[in-house]
Design goal:
The protein has 22 helices and 22 strands. By secondary structure, it is an alpha+beta fold.
Amino acid sequence: MSLDLTQFHEIFFEESFEALDSMEAALLKLSAGEVDAELINTIFRVAHSIKGGAATFAFTEVAAFTHVLETLLDQLRSGKRQVRPEIVDVLLRSGDAMRAMLLATQHKEAIDSAGVAKLRAELDRIMGEAGTAAAAPSVAAAPAPAAAAKAGAPAATPGWRIQFIPGVDLLRHGNDPLRIIRELSSLGKVRVSVDAARVTSLSTIDPEVCVLGWKIELLGEIDRAAVQNVFEWAETECELSIERMGGEATAAAQSAAMPAPTSTPATEAATAAPHADEPQHPPRAESAARTANADGGSIRVSIEKIDELLNSVGELVITQSVLSQLAAPLEGREAGELRSALAQLERHMRALQESVMRVRMLPISFVFNRFPRLVRDLGQRLGKKIELKVTGDSTELDKTVLEKIGDPLVHLVRNSIDHGIEMPDVRVAAGKTEHGTISLHAYHKGGNVIVEVTDDGGGLRKDKILKKALERGLVTNEVELSEERILNLIFAPGFSTADVVSDVSGRGVGMDVVRRNINELGGHIQIFSTQGQGSTIRIRLPLTLAILDGQLARVGKEVYVVPIVSIVETIQVTRERVNAVAGGGQVFRLRDDYLPIVRLHSLFDIDPDHTDLLDGLLMIVEADGKRVGLFVDELMSQQQVVIKSLETNFKQVMGLAGATMLGDGRVALILDIPGIITRFQSPQERGLQTPRAA
């Protein structure tokens, strides 16, 4: 019975992508001049492991390319070739190529063979050049051979004597002894003999158990670590002995004492010299199997299973809340005991809910790790010297939020590089250092995660932004705009102040998408800028999209949930602060600004308790840099609610983010504040400008 290796494919891809991230991080440190033996070893191990896994799963193009890359890396780690910027650039592009090849293989798409061949030619060219010994000590230099024995003794021949006896689970975990032996033959000359002492009759042999053993002599000046690396994925599933050989005579005598090698196609294949392009590495399926079952106290679980668990916990929270509501009016000793038990149940449910939520949390470093490469490449391309500083990368976010925040952050960092940081000569003329600085900072605040992108560049020119906005008709001269509103004009669709359109930026596509993506996550974005000193863009994000901190507000018989993150303040209306505007609308004067009033009962066509503004409350909410007042009958309690999607069972409704079940069994709709503002504005009202404050 053959082992189905396809079950390990996804784990192999996941681990390979993670390994490529660590490889890129190490290469970027080399690029910055931090030449260290462990960095080169890290890069080599990544290529070595991916090559072995690709060979095991018959991803031949990936394995063949990685084999060439591994050869160059081996020259670097052995000290035969010195690390140069040109080599680091090629290695970075090789990492990109490996990622693209793995992605294509994962999705069963065609690999860009022409691009891979071109890059492979570059690797061959570098390896064809005369090597330059590294100034630093060799990373994996072989130890000096033992001195010759006493005068007259044969000259010592360095090498290793290896006894390799596979365990019962070696084959089941996808390891191939013959491939391991072929890998050894790539290190030096090998002499192999088979130990068949454990072979039984054909009728009792288990095809999934390897009953053969091997005695191997590996000749040459080879580092012990290189030999051990060959057995890296099999060493826990075999009996392994590696001893240094004394000399040629000893080796010959030992060889003569061994049983004659069994002449079989298998051993012939094992001792044959490998083809230059043939992948030579023990399989990585064993690692995949361990990861799938248990790996150092952790397991891999699909996100769908976690979502199902979280959904079940949410339903339990709702059920517990319903029971608490039903028990509230009961009286007597039993009722008191029931309420006490339900209170204890609530504490346990909250603890369970928080525990399940933590399972979905990942550090934001998964997003931040892509930016050192982006800053390096784009800075070089634009001729700018830029340093990236990252803090708070251990701050955790829900996996769903983390996946959706990546692209907006990429756009913001690219803008900082292109528009924010000045050219070196301009910075020096302004009294700054040649190197600009871009900072990424993440931290928790008030139940949210704050992510800041800061640069010490030239800052946003408010006069230029306002001029462009006037040219496009976004504002008029009759309107007095605060600094905040001027800066927020860059989020208008198609808005750009770039003098030159390039493939980096300048087409006015992006910032409006950034804000829309942040809003869809239930977040908020702010801009702070000082001309000549730099800019900061601050993003406030919810920890998770599954649970929301909300304020319950009643309109008539309906209860709505308003995200607390969108609420600025709540006020009682006074008549002297209310003004009518053309078209039947109303605005409310709040300090030095006029805010449109949104009557939820009119927007959703329901019967309210109050229509006079003086009898209800006005909730000031904010989104997209705009504030409006939501008119409601009454404010109720604040509570965490489990969000249920409307699109799953109904359809998307502008102004509604979802629904939830309250403790009394009622369904409450969750308001989407950006959608409310958009829905409230008619085409004419979208062009309506706020009057100057009196």
